[in-house]
Sequence to fold (283 residues):
Amino acid sequence: MSTSETAISAGLPDMGRVVGHDDLLLVTLDTLRFDVAAELAEAGRLPNLARHLPGGRWERRHAPGSFTYASHQAMFAGFLPTPAAPGPHPRLFAARFEGSESTADRTFVFDTPDLVSGLADAGYRTVCIGGVGFFNKRGPLGSVLPGMFQESHWAPEFGVASPTSFESQVARAREVVAGLPAEQRLFLFVNVPSLHQPNWFHLPGATRAAGDSRETHAAALEYVDRHIGRLFAAASSRRRCFTIVCSDHGTAYGDDGWSGHRLGHESVWTVPYAHFFLEPGAP
Fold:
């Protein structure tokens, strides 16, 4: 490992010690744009998230994929969003393979095809609470990602069309945590659909006819912030919890003429990211 790689790695948690000791929470705020997330945090409109963000700010990163399925396949293989700056960038998690340039001393290295099964091998109960259609288990494609987990949950009230989707997911997460033996380590994954279209119903006065916009996207993030404290409290209710909150990709709202995602625009590839520890009993 080079001197620069050693310096970067030194700033990472020692994931070899975290795994097996702490519970783990991964929250993907599906489709969240970096610029909207950063603006709201700076303006004080995300009080529950911002109190946990290092320095009160999101880290700018590059998504591993331009839409949900591709990005989550990469993340579940250990390829989380990459810092938006010249590397090298040692990773938190990595499969063991020769020649990996992003595996460092503090990386948790697993010997299975994906992180989820690697954590299961390490004694974790792996639980998925899905949101968007790639997690709805209504067909073969919607079963691939949740099928990686020992336990997976999806219901219509968790989906993109529900104005109360995240509240419903949080309620299910609390049930999952409450039902676990105290000694059982947990890897909990939550895919939050609220930012994904349609999101117009999160902004008072917005209409279906007018559709989604950057403003309704922002309102959806504020909605998530109002409820995420209960998820954090549940995840850290038994022991310290190492937490990752990030977007899987962004989306365009007419930026340079582009709309949507699964395309190569800056608004899609640039995403917010943060990792931090939640201490037991945190509010």
